[in-house]
Write a structure and sequence with these properties.
The protein is built from 16 helices and 27 strands. The chain is of the alpha+beta class. The chain folds into 3 domains: about 280 residues, Bira Bifunctional Protein, Domain 2 (BirA Bifunctional Protein, domain 2, 2-Layer Sandwich), CATH 3.30.930; about 100 residues, no CATH class; about 90 residues, Anticodon-binding domain (Rossmann fold). Strand 21 and strand 22 form a beta hairpin. It is globular and about 105 Å long. It binds one RNA strand of 74 nucleotides through helix 1, strand 4, strand 14, strand 17 and strand 20.
RNA sequence: GCGGGUGUAGCUUAGUGGUAAAGCUCCAGCCUUCCAAGCUGGCUAUGAGGGUUCGAUUCCCUUCACCCGCUCCA
């Protein structure tokens, strides 16, 4: 099956079985938003809880061969507000950095950032020429001559730079002159010789905004957080003053984030509302490299342990030119990438491990005026710690788990099953009386009541056993316990394993123990 | 936002300017002592809004959503 078709099938399976629905489906949906159904929320919660366990409840032991080896690293959790004082986002660089006016070319279908374009013209010309700022003067002249030659009559005298695209198009300063907003039809786009192909510049603010309180004006504008990380930086001092942590330590947070994506795409991969699992690791600047490498390895272990093993998982260092504004100076960003069906044969980002340096704390200290330095008693040194940030997409993780689990099997009735690692499977087991007759049902109900105390389990009585196995295969339930005549005789049930369809007899009393053993994530 | 494509039941697909068809799912029942999602029955659809027409799911316009490309990121 092609990857595109596989993705289609996965999306419809998700809807059919209750993993993911289009948000506000009955109104025709809304671009970039998705709802998690009864099974989807179990899957997502499982991934969330496993991350929390790995990072906060049972964090890894410190790196081998260092003073931190042998003891668990220091980690605390946090749940900060989605809406923060808007100064937060000025300090973080999101207000400036996420506001990119864009211009489209109708002719070439290319898109440009308006602030990256500069406009040239020449004496007595009626035409203007937009170029990328990096374009050399030589290339500018070459193109303008080519344009003139094509037009025949144009006589070129003294080419000059008119200014930034945005200024030329919309500034009042130039409004009264012959170049103004209405000159768009006179502008020749960078990659064509045809004038008038550019659209008006459009402002894209990648943050969604809202207005808390009663007054709806600019002064009262606030933003829905575009990342959970800043909430951690805002609480750096609070955590330090309240929880007896000392550097190096981490603060972890899971929560929703919002981005007004230009183009939400690829199911839940890029949506406007999504969930992040982020941890900010605060350390001495001299140990940034050590911890960056440490977390990179630890995070790989996590994804591998819950089932994303093999060649669909890839580790990659960012090239210098794709680094975020905060990561340029440090040891860079490394990605854990997954081969999603829609990126194949390429990969898509699942988690980024970034060295954010002291960018965020420095910024917040500067803008807020609050001291965010740390006094290190052991070193007898005052400094702003450096930050290593493993930032994972929870909802992207859900998609990766779904894609990885999706397995075609023409030899079974369902034709497809979800090969979830038991640790993430939305249902750990189904309890099935072999028949709906009297002597099988009570035992099944008893087992169900016992198991549901500790596990997400299903009790399914209706219809024949083959149908029920097929249904459980399709939602990825790793085990089925079936009650038959022998159960009443010796207290055993059959345990049927999803992938192999093999069965073994297990004492009903041991069913819980059996499950607990099976659903542990692989050792890191 | 731009360009291209798609839109018929919960899902996957037929089909037609004149009563909209099927398989699976789901529900009710039957049959079932381990793969028999086998049997019977039932619910459910032309994305939304306009227009042309005696009559539109079909033709036209607008809009919305999804898919592919540009772009962006967790």
């Amino acid at each position: 099956m092609s990857d595109e078709n596989m993705m289609k099938d996965l999306v419809s399976l998700c809807k059919r079985r209750g993993f993911v629905f289009p948000a506000s489906d009955i109104y025709g949906g809304i671009n970039g938003f998705w709802d998690y159904g009864p099974l989807g929320v179990e899957l997502k919660n499982n991934l969330r809880d496993l991350w929390w366990k790995w990072m906060v409840l049972c964090p890894p032991l410190g790196p081998e061969g260092t003073e931190y080896a042998g003891a668990p690293v220091s980690m605390v959790g946090l749940d900060s507000s989605i809406i923060q004082n808007p100064k937060t986002w000025e300090a973080s660089g999101h207000v400036a950095g996420f506001t990119d006016p864009m211009v489209d070319c109708r002719e070439t279908k290319l898109r440009y950032r308006a602030d990256h374009l500069v406009v040239y013209s020449y004496l007595d010309s009626t035409f203007l020429f937009a170029f990328n700022k990096e374009t050399s003067l030589e290339d500018v002249e070459k193109k303008i001559h080519k344009f003139a030659k094509k037009r025949g009559s144009e006589n070129i005298r003294q080419i000059f730079e008119l200014g930034d695209f945005t200024k030329v198009i919309i500034s009042d300063e130039l409004k009264d002159r012959k170049y103004n907003y209405h000159s768009l039809d006179k502008i020749v786009a960078p990659d064509t010789l045809e004038p008038g192909t550019l659209t008006e510049p459009r402002q894209f603010n990648l943050m969604l905004d809202t207005y808390p309180g009663v007054i709806r004006d600019e002064a009262h504008k606030a933003y829905l957080r575009p990342e959970t990380a800043q909430g951690i930086f805002l609480n750096f001092k609070n955590v330090l003053d309240s929880s007896r942590v000392k550097i190096p330590f981490g603060i972890a947070q899971i929560g929703k984030a919002f981005r007004n994506e230009v183009t939400p795409r690829n199911f839940i991969y890029r949506s406007r509302e999504f969930e992040q699992m982020e941890m900010e690791w605060f350390c001495h600047p001299s140990e940034a490299k050590l911890w960056r490498d440490f977390w990179f390895v630890e995070r790989q272990k996590f994804w591998t342990a819950i089932g994303l093993a093999g060649e669909n998982l890839q580790m990659r260092d960012h090239d210098k030119d794709e680094l975020s504004h905060y990561a340029k100076a440090g040891y860079g960003t490394a990605d854990i990438e997954y081969r999603f069906p829609f990126t194949a044969p390429g990969f898509g980002e699942l988690e980024g491990i970034a060295h954010r340096c002291d960018f965020d704390l420095t910024q917040h200290q500067k803008i807020s005026g609050q001291k965010l330095e740390y006094f290190d008693q052991e070193r007898n040194e005052r400094y702003i710690p450096h930050v290593i940030e493993p930032a994972a997409g929870l909802t992207r993780g859900v998609l990766a788990l779904l894609a990885e689990a999706y397995t075609l099997d023409p030899n079974r009735p369902s034709g497809v099953y979800l090969n979830f690692h038991p640790a993430v499977a939305p249902k750990k087991a189904a309890i099935l009386p072999l028949t709906a007759k009297e002597d099988h049902v009570p035992a099944a109900q008893k087992l169900y009541m016992a198991l549901r105390e500790d596990f997400a389990v299903d009790l399914d009585i209706k219809q024949n056993i083959g149908k029920r196995y097929a249904r459980q295969d399709e939602i990825g339930t790793p085990y089925c316990f079936t009650i038959d005549d022998q159960t009443n005789a010796d207290g055993t049930v059959t345990a049927r394993e999803r992938n192999t369809m093999a069965q073994e007899r297990v004492s009903m009393d041991r069913a819980g123990e059996y499950l607990r053993e099976k659903i542990k994530p692989a050792k890191g």
